[in-house]
Design goal:
By secondary structure, the chain is mainly α. The chain is 57% helix and 3% strand.
Length: 159
């Protein structure tokens, strides 16, 4: 009887040890997976911009401008109907300026350094400069974003 009890206790102790090792191994695997995912995210953040504040012109336009100006830039975005004034067709900027795209002036309007067209009325168009100049990873990507969105707008001009 005593031997049976000792055998039972020995078996129980082995099973508890195995369970502890199994739990420890599972925790280590989970921790490794979490650390790997965090490292990959950190590396991705170093090489690409955050999704909420992209640096590519088409994405910037889609995220910040298309709600009012439309995906095609012609002024018929879903939010345009709620504004007091008609939203300008951004594909006609060059036509309105003698066939030349006023690159610097457009960038200054986007950044808020110059007043926009009368259609913007009483500042219905947000000033994007402070948003674009948000500091990320100790870098100010504002000029890169302003340049990218201005180049994109230049690229959608109708001939």
């Amino acid at each position: 009887m005593l031997q049976d009890r000792a055998l039972w206790i020995t078996t129980e102790v082995r099973m508890l040890r195995q369970e502890r090792w199994s739990i420890l191994l599972l925790c280590l695997v989970c921790l490794s997976a979490v650390l790997l995912a965090a490292a990959q995210k950190q590396e991705q953040d170093k090489t690409t911009s955050p999704s909420r504040n992209p640096i590519e012109g088409p994405k910037i336009f889609r995220y910040y401008c298309a709600a009012c100006h439309g995906a095609d830039g012609r002024g018929h975005g879903p939010a345009s109907f709620a504004l007091k004034h008609a939203v300008p067709d951004l594909t006609l900027i060059s036509q309105r300026n003698g066939g030349k795209f006023p690159y610097e002036h457009v960038g200054e309007i986007i950044e808020g350094k110059q007043p926009g067209p009368l259609a913007h009325g009483d500042q219905e168009m947000p000033i994007w400069g402070p948003i674009f100049h948000e500091v990320e990873s100790d870098q100010d990507w504002g000029e890169v974003r302003l340049d990218a969105i201005t180049k994109y707008m230049e690229s959608i001009q109708r001939k």
